[in-house]
Design a protein that fits this description.
The structure is a single chain. The protein has 411 residues and is α/β, with parallel strands linked by helices. 21% of the residues lie in helices and 32% in strands. The protein has 8 helices and 22 strands. A 7-stranded mixed β-sheet has the order 9-8-7-10-11-12-13, covered by helices on one side. Strands 18-17-16-19-20-22-21 form a 7-stranded mixed β-sheet, with helices on both faces. The chain has a 6-stranded mixed β-sheet with strand order 1-5-6-4-3-2. α5 links the parallel β17 and β18. α7 packs across α8. 44% of the residues are buried.
Length: 411
């Protein structure tokens, strides 16, 4: 018989659960809010911590709101974790979690700046990824990741994506995964199909959309339209191919560009190194304000997109290959550096190469405060000072936290 407890919740943990304590153990409670008194059932127990299921909110937080989505909650869609929290409180909690992770993991104290919130905390995702239920319908993974729940609407995707989803509503017995992408400024649409087994695959849609089949070896086959779509951010157009990474919140991407520009403060003649450049969001946005842009990107398709997007710029180049290996070959002086690593962060080996190059200022774009804290520790140990940290809320209604950190080389 699982143990039930009454807890006073005191803080928000990285990962989206509120936490309380009982007999020396930390108890993590999803779908709760700090300050609440709750009754819970323990579902996973360890010596120092446990995970619980929320049974009843005995004393609700003043920041608790009614989630609009019928698929939100325990044992339902796992895409959102914080629809039950007032948006302004979401921002405050994200700042708290970010500061806690930097101190706890990186041993760093920094005054986290006021977050840049989303102008529209709903209907913002320019990318979504569906899986297929056993009976062939589209849905999202459940909160435990063990199943797929069929859904008929999503409150955080762009209306363009929603329209495309409705137009593609059909039976998908051979489909493993479907990714829908859009350019919010251009209106261009893309559907990327992944099959669980290969067979002839035909599709008909009665409005313009690029349909691409992503093969098991990473290659793509165009079923309809172009192998890419276009987006405009901060006045610059970017071609984005089916497998190329791009920020999933176009308005948030524009805010990131402005923060990176302000943090790096280019004077006009520097060499800017753009690591994990993908299609060139940061490097190309700043190309007109520096002397030379050197982008480094591991994915060949994204590097090709960068070259296309830089075709009007004589001072921008991309070097394609594994990030650490390409970095090791760079010998020219670098004054400014921006990096936008994946969720897991850059890692010590890449950071060591960054430190070797001794750029005066580094703008680190992060989607995860834990990996930022680990990399920040390596940068500080390598002679840098964490000077500023600006949260940018790229993912409203979720626990995910975007930010830009400024590191300045100590002289």
């Amino acid at each position: 018989m699982p143990q039930t407890l009454v807890l006073e919740l005191t803080a928000m943990a990285h990962g989206g659960s509120a936490l309380g304590r009982h007999e020396g153990r930390v108890i993590f409670v999803p779908y709760a809010i700090p300050g609440e008194r709750v009754r819970v059932e323990l579902v996973e127990e360890h010596q120092r911590w446990a995970r619980a299921r929320l049974l009843e909110v005995l004393q609700p937080s003043p920041y608790r709101v009614q989630p609009p989505c019928p698929y939100f909650g325990q044992d339902k869609c796992g895409g959102c974790q914080w629809q039950h929290i007032d948006y302004e409180e979401q921002l405050r909690l994200k700042v708290q979690v970010m500061a806690d992770q930097l101190q706890r993991i990186g041993g760093l104290e920094v005054a986290v700046e006021e977050p840049i919130g989303a102008e529209e905390p709903w209907s913002y995702l320019n990318y979504t990824q569906f899986y297929v239920t056993q009976d062939g319908h589209l849905g999202y993974p459940t909160t435990d990741g063990r199943d797929v729940i069929p859904v008929e609407e999503c409150y955080i995707i762009e209306p363009l994506i929603d329209d495309l989803w409705m137009a593609l509503d059909m039976y998908w017995p051979q489909l493993y995964r479907l990714s829908l992408r859009c350019g919010t400024a251009t209106g261009e649409l893309m559907a990327v199909f992944e099959l669980d087994h290969y067979e002839d695959f035909d599709i008909e849609v009665d409005f313009p959309v690029s349909c691409v089949l992503l093969l098991a070896d990473g290659d793509t086959a165009v079923l309809m339209g172009e192998p890419h779509f276009r987006e405009v951010v901060a006045g610059r157009e970017y071609r984005i191919s089916a497998a190329s990474a791009f920020h999933v919140n176009s308005g948030g991407a524009e805010a990131l560009v402005e923060v990176v520009r302000g943090f790096l403060a280019p004077a006009g003649d520097e060499t800017l190194l753009d690591l994990y450049s993908s299609v060139g969001l940061f490097g190309l946005a700043l190309a007109g304000e520096v002397g030379h842009v050197v982008a480094v990107e591991a994915d060949a398709g994204a590097a090709a997109d960068f070259e296309h997007n830089a075709r009007d710029l004589a001072n921008a180049e991309v070097r394609q290959g594994e990030i650490r290996e390409v970095l090791a070959g760079i010998q020219e002086p670098v004054q400014l550096l921006v990096l936008d690593p994946p969720l897991a962060g850059a890692g010590q080996a890449v950071i060591e190469q960054v430190v070797r190059l001794e750029p005066a200022r580094i703008a680190y774009v992060s989607a995860d405060p834990a990996s930022l804290a680990r990399d920040a520790r390596h940068l500080v140990d390598g002679g840098y000072r964490l000077e500023r940290l600006q949260p940018v809320d790229l993912y409203p209604q979720t626990f995910h936290i975007g930010s830009v950190a400024l590191f300045v080389r100590e002289r």
